[in-house]
UniProtKB/TrEMBL annotation:
<feature type="region of interest" description="Disordered">
    <location>
        <begin position="382"/>
        <end position="423"/>
    </location>
</feature>
<comment type="similarity">
    <text>Belongs to the UPF0415 family.</text>
</comment>
<protein>
    <recommendedName>
        <fullName>DUF1308 domain-containing protein</fullName>
    </recommendedName>
</protein>
<dbReference type="InterPro" id="IPR041076">
    <property type="entry name" value="DUF5614"/>
</dbReference>
<dbReference type="InterPro" id="IPR010733">
    <property type="entry name" value="DUF1308"/>
</dbReference>
<dbReference type="Pfam" id="PF18474">
    <property type="entry name" value="DUF5614"/>
</dbReference>
<dbReference type="Pfam" id="PF07000">
    <property type="entry name" value="DUF1308"/>
</dbReference>
<feature type="compositionally biased region" description="Low complexity">
    <location>
        <begin position="393"/>
        <end position="403"/>
    </location>
</feature>
<feature type="domain" description="DUF1308">
    <location>
        <begin position="230"/>
        <end position="388"/>
    </location>
</feature>
<feature type="domain" description="DUF5614">
    <location>
        <begin position="9"/>
        <end position="198"/>
    </location>
</feature>
Amino acid sequence: MESSLVSELSALRERAEGLIKRADLLKTSGNIEGIGKVKKKIQAELTFIKSLEEGKVIPKKNQLKSTNLSHLDALLHTAETFDHVTAVLRPVHYETEEGYDISLLVDVVGHKGRSWVKVTARKAEALHRIWEGEGEYGEQNIVQQVGQYQDASSQNLLDFSPPAVHVVFYSGITQAVSAELLDLGAVVHGHIYQNDDEMRNNKPDLPVFHPEEEIDKLPLEAESIPQATNLDVTTMIALVSDLCHGGSSYSFNEPVIEELSQQERQRPLLPEVENFIKGKELIVCETAKHDFQAIIETIGGPREKERSQELLQRLHIVPDQPSSRTLTLSSSNRIKDRAKVIFGTGDALKIITTTANEAFVRAASKQGVAYSVFIHQSRALTEKKQQNPAKASPSSSSSNCNSFTDSIQHPLGLDNSNSYPQN
């Protein structure tokens, strides 16, 4: 093997090993979904490079030039430097005008879900040539790819606004392509070449993201969102649980309940949930109401049953009406039919769902369906399981056993003009 080829392979191997270290650092230092996928892709590249070094595969120059390390490097850099990144390589689904269901991988999800980022490390000259129609048969140009992001964004709303689409060019982009992307509504990052001479003679610096400048480009908070919230069964259980109404001062034989009791003493749940639902209309679908009543009747204590009746009188019950994208979810251990109906109804009504069922939210997201949710800690019905009061001092929640009614005691004021379907 030629010495120049040996040196090139060694440099590629070191680069891949460096990328793996960066991926590991992201995985341990931040809660970014999908970093494991990026690491697997880097490891696959590293395995191939090692096979070339060991002579298991005869190396060719074009193989070294076509390595995917540049793109993976750009992906990691964006995840490291873009503001509030929550996921990489996230799958999303959308439906075309012809009715086809399309799956799409979003390179980076930033701004806490409010921005989708398309990353490319291809040279500006190559991107421009493909845009002019000189690419391989069936090869999409960058404008078409961003158009898919826009289509998917319009059908995968966060808090009922489409995520903004960003495009990051690590090797720059021509002014003509950039202009069309801006017309499409995308936010463009990276050096914009004004002419061919500049493109041939200048190497662009790494893109720099400025959070304070990007905030004006984010989707506006939807002021038109109805002042209502969809309650999951887990939220209703928490609102009436004796644990949240002074019961955390008791001891429990069950380790799980004892742990919840300790959590309640350290961080009372009602103030957190009340702060979110205060002033909002409380929506509950038929399935959630039925399951809540069944659970209360089976394991609820007298005080918990009394609170449940008070709560039910203040709820607006609507028919089950899961959104169409919810119906595409494949059922699993974490995606139950009941949860699909409850979360899907909130999604169809375009209101945030309050829940402690974070497992469902994460599992749905991995299938490309991201829900607008308010997630809180879980609580259980505990009145029947209370033993002698523990030595721990009662939490602040014990001082007001009916405090949750303060947030929802106002009349719902429903009438025939209400926008939510009623039975």
